[in-house]
Amino acid sequence: MAGDQKAKAMKEQAEGKAKEAAGRTVGNERMTAEGHAKQKKGDLRQAKEKGKDALRD
Predict the structure, then answer these.
(1) Residues of the chain with pLDDT under 50
(2) For residues 39 and 9, is the Cβ–Cβ distance under 8 A?
(3) Kind and range of the H or E run holding 30
(4) Angle 13-7-32 from CA coordinates, rounded to 5°
């Protein structure tokens, strides 16, 4: 399950970066903010999984 969550975190980060870049390109502040938020959500998910891994070791 941890592998699924790590993959989901990386996917969210990539989608967020793409959406943020697209928003900046077209000048859409809302899209930029949504992309940034999705990227941060992925960062938090990844940090949570790293914390779990540290406790297991």
Answers:
(1) none
(2) no
(3) helix 29-56
(4) 15
